[in-house]
Amino acid sequence: MIDRHEGFLRMRTLQAIVLLIFAVIGLRVAYIQLIDPRYKELARTNVMFSQVEYAPRGEIFDRNGNYIAQNRECYDLMVIYRDINKHGFDSVRFCQIAGIDLPRLRTRLKQARQNPRAPFLITNFLSKEEKLRFDVGGFDGFYTVSRTIRSYPTPIGGNLLGEVGLPSENYRKLHPEVHPNEYIGRTGIEKAYDYVLRGKRGIRVLERNTHGALKGSFMDGIFDTLPEPGKNIVCTIDAKLQLMGEELMAGKVGGAIAIEPATGEILMMVSSPTFDPDRLVGRNRSRTYAELLQNPRNPLYNRAVQGRYPPGSTFKLAQALIGLEEGVLQAHDMHPCHNGYSVGRGVKCHSHKSPIDLYYAIATSCNAYFCYVFRDILDNKAHGGVKNGFDVWHNYVESFGFGGRLGSDFLDESSGALPSRARYDRVYHGSWNSLTVLSLSIGQGEMLCSPLQLANFAATIANRGYYYTPHIVKQIEGIDSIDSRFRERHYTMIDPKHYETIIQGMWDGVNKEGTSTAARLEGFDVCGKTGTAQNPNGKDHSTFLSFAPRNNPKIAISVYIEHGGFGASAALPIASLLEEYYLTDTIRRPALYQRMKELKIAHPNDNKKKRQ
Fold first, then answer.
1. Which residues, 6+ apart, have CB-to-CB distance to 363 below 8 Å?
2. Domain match, 136 and 264 both
3. 525 exposed, middle or buried (CB, 10 Å; 0-12, 13-18, 19+)?
4. For residue 423, what is the domain's CATH number?
5. How confident is the model at residue 535 (pLDDT cuts 50, 70, 90)?
6. Is 208 in the same domain as 317?
7. What whole-number distance in Å separates Cα of residue 194 and Cα of residue 55?
8. How far apart are CA 314 and CA 349, in angstroms?
9. Alpha-carbon distances of 200 from 43, 133, 310, 478, rounded to whole Å
10. C-alpha 346: how far from its chain's center?
């Protein structure tokens, strides 16, 4: 028999256990109701449903007000898995209307089932007609969301404009404010100005009835937020010039850039090969993108701003300017050339009269002359040694915009390459002189630059010693002016008076006697300089830089063609035709235009297959 005291203890213990159980239950209920948001969210979604409304992306115009990227309406097909008809639906008819195959539908529904209350994308890019057919189909749980996608009136500027697509997981980690199904700019202008083009998405809160069906806006839409459309952009590009540039560069590999010297505005930016931007819009985008990736000429690579090439003979203009500023060169200084420079390893040159002055050296692109000039700069005793002289030369070259990024509004702009004194000390163990680096005198060796930098160099000469940072956007809707950094002048270390000497030599080369005479345009005082850049991997590269007119120039241009041979063979006629078209709005040499348009230049990659 259990005594009274032991029974009392058991009763108290049982009471404590019961109270503890009720306390745990009470705390759990309080946590669910007051703290844990999941159940509140589940209750809310039984009554309300939030539907994303995407903002129309800002449209892009050229400098003359012509559309180069505009919007067209399309629809995303979404599903909330828990709302699907429990007795099933006609999946075959569904696929016919939505334009997808049955295996893809099953895969997407399987993925949607993992979070049955959340909206899930089944397919996108439905047309207006497909959306209307779907609306009358009676498919419970499925609905459409309106959005806009890009449309391009003229198939130009694939690399220039860039592409629009869904954000990657890494992007969303850096930008958590971006919705997983919200389109962002991935390359080109679309990427650089995504922050103004994208706008802000809105939310429409819908109400469910007792059967779970959506029946309209919750409380007459007082909780809705309207999407804010992206801002339109006026581009600096001339669409007609861009189209012509792409036509002339077809069949070649390289880049062509035209700049308005007085503003730094980019009039044309061609990377060849390019692609029709419309091909990267819609359901076939992935297939097209894969094809472009496998193309051995790599059309997705923007050579105009990312390419790294030796400037070749166009760089002789910089050597002359530095020599004049340093006082080791005068315009009428004579130097001999007997088919090249014979000191040390030597540098070959084509046949022409000898000796010659600076004007003739620029006009005929004499290699030997600029070897003399380069060595005189580095070996100048005033600097106390060749290495100090090299540092002086290096600083001058940097002031032209070489060796670093220009700071354009293209985020993927290349910095090129400008070798330093430290590099040569490391490579040659401190033992080197002006002959060791002689290849730099003619724009070869370790020096590399982009077509954008060469066009900027042409604009700098046209402006007699300064440039504006090249940029692609002229105006943004609702913003009074472009970024102030694009209105700032960047001065070189060269006195403006020396530019007149260089310009005279460039003018002579086009209008009197020289390698650039094919660029002559009656009445426009074209100034130009050819370049033939040596290439260890095949035929030499062809390049040409120019500006026109000589006074109050309207256009500065650089054309660079891989494996194009002499500068006057491929790059010059293309640049000349583009200058002619921009300045006159006509083509005066239709036969030359047709010949350059049809010219195809072989490339070593043509026989290679890109890695998978």
1. 505, 506, 508, 509, 512, 513, 514, 515, 516
2. no
3. middle
4. 3.40.710.10
5. confident
6. no
7. 13
8. 15
9. 28, 29, 44, 15
10. 40
Burial of 414 (0-12, 13-18, 19+ CB in 10 A): buried
Residue 373, phi then psi, degrees to nearest 5: -60, -45
Long-range pairs of 222-229 with CB within 8 A, sequence gap ≥ 24: 226/53, 226/202, 227/53, 227/54, 227/55, 227/56, 227/199, 227/200, 227/201, 227/202, 228/55, 228/199, 228/200, 228/202, 229/55, 229/56, 229/57, 229/58, 229/199
Residue 480 lies in a domain: yes
Residues 432, 507, single domain; the answer is yes
pLDDT at res. 612 = 40
**Nearest-10 crossing angle of helices 91-98, 128-135:** 160
What is the CATH classification number for the domain harbouring 116? Answer: 3.90.1310.10
- Label residue 264 by pLDDT band (50, 70, 90): very high
Tens digit of each residue's pLDDT (9 = 90 or more) over 587-602? 999 999 999 999 999 9
pLDDT score of 286? 86
Structural domain for 126, as ranges: 54-235
Domain stop point among 235, 254, 277? 235
Which amino acid is residue 349, in one-letter code?
A: C
Residue identified by tokens 């010693």 is 465
Task: Report, in angstroms and rounded to the nearest whole number, the Rg of the chain calculated over CA atoms.
Answer: 33
Instruction: Kindly report the backbone phi and psi dihedral angles of residue 171, in degrees, each rounded to the nearest multiple of 5, phi listed first.
Output: -65, -45
Taken in order 440, 443, 449, 455, the sign of the CA dihedral is: positive
- For the stretch 349-398, pLDDT in tens is 998 999 999 999 999 999 999 999 999 999 999 999 999 999 999 999 99
Q: What was the pLDDT predicted at 60? A: 97
| 58 and 90 co-located in one domain | yes
pLDDT (tens digit, 9 = 90+) per residue, 436-452? 999 999 999 999 999 99
